[in-house]
């Protein structure tokens, strides 16, 4: 029950990578919003298209002139019939409003609306620092060519060049990223290059061309692990990489989400279409669908819209779904196959169906689907004018994928197929560099304007930025271990960001023009072995921390050739003889003062109280708390026989009072200075607060160095132990809800029942104790703070708390409000629901919120709820609890509810669950329950 915070703070930087993403989401949001809206607002100035005739260009002609390739598979794009229904309507971007469309290689301030899609393309200048703008050769320019293919950005320099895109939605969201390339002999060399494309640190695909007018499009569905998406072009020695256009679209739901994987588009087919390819605005996600017809089939369609009453999960375009094929002969199956040519590739297949014919009463359509001769899905019955997707995401592989859709024996009508998507599954094996390191090195890069070749991920894939060395261990995020910035003309002070490269071992800043003092923060880098500052303009002397490291030989520190720097004492600015004198005087006075204070303290207060200030209203409570002598404590604990807990500040023992009451005795370890302060804080709070859901305080001991606090014994230990101990009986859902209600009561009392209000600051499952009736009480007020003034909205204070539970806003701003406790409570609630800890060590230290959110987005409640509950709970109750938990967790504190609101919600959950329980029993089940109505049990609160 003692604090892990000390430990946690030393782990700060190990856990850094968990938190920084959380924080950066919130830091970056603003920035990227600006970006997105910039693009949007650029788009508004449609009429003044700069330097360009709004030429009439029909996209479908592109298909005629040059084959459009998607992921190296040639698709037929012949089209003639349909005329584009092109209204110069006001732009309404729907789902693509947060999309980013970049025309690579146009001058910096250019932007325009694409004639066909009306999507707004902006210059790539804001997304990349390197490369040259080029026009494709006149010979390949044509009225019909999509505007974004007219220019390219080419990268004759550097092995790796990266675009950095910060979409407003941040990491952990599903994006569609599409890169387009057309060589068009832009460099007049008539030589088709070949190069590699990367997304983040993972290989995406290689780019190859058949000829200069060959349009290659690469599309990937990707869930980035970081807030920035890097799209990188890698020079493999087979020609200069270039790019024509880059587009990013955002899927609002998680239909295409896969576990830490990316989906590389293989085929997206508008089956039965006789028209042109379909994209935005028909497809609100701007997926591109290519017409496809298989042999021995009849295309057919309906004039009626599909999904007119509501969008399907995949938001399938009506235009795509209203065409389909059926076999020539009604008794035949639909058979078709694709040569993949690579048996190692794994595919996800999505098939989309909608019934296009109004069936008569005696008609039915039902079919089975097979892949490579094996059953995939049986008894599919398409809905009339409504989409159904078969997306079991079965992994399939083989050099050839054969599909067969055949009617079942009961079916009177032949099978159909409206649309289909196939993706190659890409495993993301390489983790991106630790986010803390990335943030630090990016700051260093911009602070000292280092090198434009520093792009993309600093350490990955397997090559790092010039001047950096990284460690690679398994699939862990790489860390930066050495940084050589010698002779780079660095100016100014040594930036604190260096100290954020927590695994740094080697730092060379020699032969630059760094000025100012040598800061001591570098001594905080635990692994630093080599620090070279030779040949700079530093002043001052070696600070104590670094001096200590140097003296113990753990650091090779070099500061020669800094003319104003004093390397070893005596340093001329320090008046050596004064220092010892001053020091001696000061210590003498200090000792004297201490003696006086000690003596007065002893004299005046034989029965020393820890209480510094006491409040009138709680005066009566104080008398309940006894002072114990050390010998009494020894006898209570039977000479400290049974240890029941250990923490940074001391040890907790089990004991019996004379009347047989069990107690827990927390003794402060003699060495802990900080601990003593916290003990006092805690004792002060314990004497003031009294509530059935707060740990009750029995007394204290304060004799010399023997300082201890005595509490009511909580037989069932901490909630954390209870949830993690798999040998104990799992807490039932009802018990968990009751615990949540208890804790919420306790916090509500602290926030609104105490004057001045109290913020606990360290709410976590380890600080929630359970008595023998599983009644929950909040313990450990060592970090609690009064929240004094009504007229102040927040308190600025140093951040304390425990990682995993710590409010990101408080963490980043130091602004403390009672909503910080609400955040921590939300985490505890998630722990109760999932049975998992705040930080999932088994999932690469994933924060519980990041683990729950995607499952929640999928509506996959079963995978969230603690499996030990074995499904015995009311789903509505759990849903509501989950919603309540998530409501506590926005990174902006004002968006969180108060504990009073939370309490109301939780009581409702409890009511639902109890009702569910009772129904269950009335139906004849024998189920032991100590059903207590939480409302009744609560009673009046001690305030
Ligand atoms: C260029 O390559 C594409 C794809 O291979 C092909 O369909 C097209 O006919 C070629 N164009 C020319 C002009 O050779
Ligand atoms: C590309 O062509 C435009 C005119 O169409 C011209 O203004 C521009 O300077 C050209 N850019 C390059 C890099 O040649
Ligand atoms: C970085 O790695 C390179 C290549 O392995 C090596 O030559 C160099 O000495 C390393 N630098 C540091 C500072 O460790
Ligand atoms: C110091 O850096 C300058 C450029 O900043 C370079 O010309 C010079 O050779 C470097 N000297 C040494 C000793 O590395």
Automatic annotation (TrEMBL):
Localization, UniProt: Membrane
Alphabetized UniProt keyword annotations? ATP-binding, Kinase, Leucine-rich repeat, Membrane, Nucleotide-binding, Phosphoprotein, Receptor, Repeat, Serine/threonine-protein kinase, Signal, Transferase, Transmembrane, Transmembrane helix
Its Enzyme Commission number(s) read: 2.7.11.1
Query: Isomerase among the record's keywords?
Result: no
Residue span(s) of domain Protein kinase: 638-943
Q: How does it sit in the membrane?
A: Single-pass membrane protein
Q: What class of enzyme is it?
A: transferase
Which SUPFAM superfamilies does the record cross-reference, listed alphabetically?
L domain-like (SSF52058), Protein kinase-like (PK-like) (SSF56112)
Q: What do the Gene Ontology cellular component annotations say?
A: membrane
Which residues are noted in the entry as ATP-binding? 666
Principal place of residence: membrane
Report which superkingdom the organism of origin falls in.
Eukaryota
PANTHER family reported in the protein's UniProt record: OS07G0107800 PROTEIN-RELATED, PROTEIN KINASE DOMAIN-CONTAINING PROTEIN
Protein name (database record): non-specific serine/threonine protein kinase
């Amino acid at each position: 029950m003692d604090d892990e915070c000390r430990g946690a703070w030393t782990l700060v930087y190990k856990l850094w990578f968990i938190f920084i993403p959380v924080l950066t989401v919130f830091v970056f949001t603003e920035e990227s919003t600006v970006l997105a809206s910039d693009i949007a607002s650029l788009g508004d100035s449609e009429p003044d298209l700069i330097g360009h005739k709004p030429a009439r260009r029909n996209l479908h002609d592109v298909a005629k002139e040059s084959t459009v390739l998607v992921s190296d598979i040639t698709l037929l794009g012949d089209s003639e019939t349909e005329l584009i229904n092109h209204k110069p309507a006001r732009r309404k971007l729907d789902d693509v409003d947060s999309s980013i469309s970049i025309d690579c290689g146009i001058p910096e301030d250019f932007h325009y609306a694409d004639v066909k899609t009306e999507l707004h393309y902006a210059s790539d200048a804001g997304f990349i620092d390197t490369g040259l703008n080029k026009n494709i050769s006149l010979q390949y320019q044509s009225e019909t060519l999509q505007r974004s293919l007219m220019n390219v950005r080419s990268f004759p320099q550097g092995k790796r060049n990266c675009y950095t895109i910060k979409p407003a939605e941040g990491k952990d969201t599903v994006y569609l990223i599409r890169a387009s390339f057309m060589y068009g002999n832009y460099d007049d060399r008539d030589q088709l290059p070949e190069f590699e494309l990367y997304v983040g640190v993972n290989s995406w695909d290689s780019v190859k061309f058949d000829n200069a007018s060959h349009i290659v499009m690469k599309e990937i569905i990707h869930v980035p692990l970081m807030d920035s998406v890097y799209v990188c072009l890698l020079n493999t020695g087979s020609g200069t990489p270039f790019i024509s256009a880059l587009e990013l679209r955002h899927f609002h739901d998680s239909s295409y989400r896969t576990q830490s994987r990316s989906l590389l588009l293989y085929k997206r087919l508008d089956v039965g279409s006789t028209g042109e390819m379909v994209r935005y605005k028909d497809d609100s996600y701007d997926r591109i669908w290519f017409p496809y017809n298989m042999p021995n089939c009849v295309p057919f369609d309906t004039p009626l819209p599909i999904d007119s009453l509501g969008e399907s999960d995949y938001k399938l375009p009506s235009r795509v779904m209203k065409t389909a094929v059926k076999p020539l002969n009604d008794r035949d199956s639909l058979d078709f196959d694709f040569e993949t040519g690579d048996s190692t590739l794994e595919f996800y297949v999505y098939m989309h169906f909608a019934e296009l014919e109004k069936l008569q009463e005696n008609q039915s359509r039902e079919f089975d689907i097979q892949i490579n001769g094996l059953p995939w899905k049986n008894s599919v019955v398409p809905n009339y004018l409504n989409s159904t997707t078969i997306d079991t995401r079965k992994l399939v592989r083989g050099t050839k994928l054969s599909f067969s859709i055949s009617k079942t024996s009961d079916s009177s009508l032949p099978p159909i197929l409206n649309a289909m998507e196939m993706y190659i599954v890409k495993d993301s094996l390489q983790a991106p560099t630790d986010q803390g390191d990335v943030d630090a090195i990016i700051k260093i890069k911009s602070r000292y304007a280092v090198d434009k070749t520093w792009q993309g991920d600093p350490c990955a894939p397997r090559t790092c930025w010039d001047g950096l060395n990284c460690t690679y261990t398994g699939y862990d995020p790489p860390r930066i271990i050495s940084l050589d910035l010698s002779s780079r003309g660095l100016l100014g002070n040594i930036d604190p960001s260096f100290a954020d490269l927590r695994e740094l071992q080697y730092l060379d800043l020699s032969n630059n023009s760094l000025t100012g003092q040598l800061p001591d923060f570098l001594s905080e880098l635990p692994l630093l072995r080599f620090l070279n500052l030779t040949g700079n303009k530093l002043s001052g002397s070696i600070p104590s921390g670094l001096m200590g490291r140097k003296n113990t030989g753990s650091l090779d520190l070099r500061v020669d050739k800094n003319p104003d720097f004093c390397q070893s004492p005596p340093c001329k600015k320090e008046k050596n003889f004064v220092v010892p004198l001053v020091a001696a005087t000061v210590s003498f006075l200090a000792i004297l003062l201490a003696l006086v204070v000690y003596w007065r303290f002893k004299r005046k207060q034989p029965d020393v109280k820890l209480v510094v200030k006491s409040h009138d209203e709680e005066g009566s409570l104080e008398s309940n708390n006894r002072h114990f002598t050390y010998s009494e404590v020894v006898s209570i604990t039977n000479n400290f026989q049974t240890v029941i807990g250990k923490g940074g500040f001391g040890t907790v023992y089990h004991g019996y009072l004379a009347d047989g009451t069990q107690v827990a005795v927390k003794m402060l370890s003699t060495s802990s200075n900080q601990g003593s302060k916290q003990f006092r804080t805690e004792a002060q709070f314990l004497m003031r607060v009294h509530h059935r859901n707060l740990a009750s305080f029995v007394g204290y001991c304060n004799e010399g160095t023997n300082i201890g606090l005595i509490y009511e014994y909580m037989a069932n230990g901490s909630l954390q132990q209870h949830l993690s101990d798999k040998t104990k009986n799992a807490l039932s859902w009802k018990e968990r809800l009751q615990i949540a209600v208890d804790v919420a009561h306790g916090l509500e009392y602290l926030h609104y029942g105490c004057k001045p209000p109290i913020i606990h600051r360290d709410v976590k499952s380890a600080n929630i104790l359970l008595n023998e009736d599983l009644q929950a009480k909040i313990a450990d007020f060592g970090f609690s703070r009064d929240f004094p003034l009504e007229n102040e909205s927040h308190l600025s204070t140093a951040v304390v708390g425990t990682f995993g539970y710590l409010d990101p806003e408080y963490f980043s701003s130091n602004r403390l409000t009672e909503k910080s406790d609400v955040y921590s409570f939300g985490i505890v609630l998630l722990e109760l629901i999932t049975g998992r800890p705040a930080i999932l060590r088994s999932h690469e230290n994933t924060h519980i919120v990041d683990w729950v959110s995607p499952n929640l987005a999928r509506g996959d409640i079963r995978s969230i709820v603690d499996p030990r509950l074995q499904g015995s709970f009311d789903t509505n109750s759990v849903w509501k609890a989950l919603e309540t938990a998530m409501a506590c967790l926005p990174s902006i504190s004002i968006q969180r509810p108060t504990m009073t609101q939370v309490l109301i919600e939780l009581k409702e959950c409890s009511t639902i669950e109890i009702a569910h329980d009772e129904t269950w029993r009335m139906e004849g089940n024998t189920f032991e329950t100590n059903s207590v109505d939480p409302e009744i049990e609560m009673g009046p609160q001690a305030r």
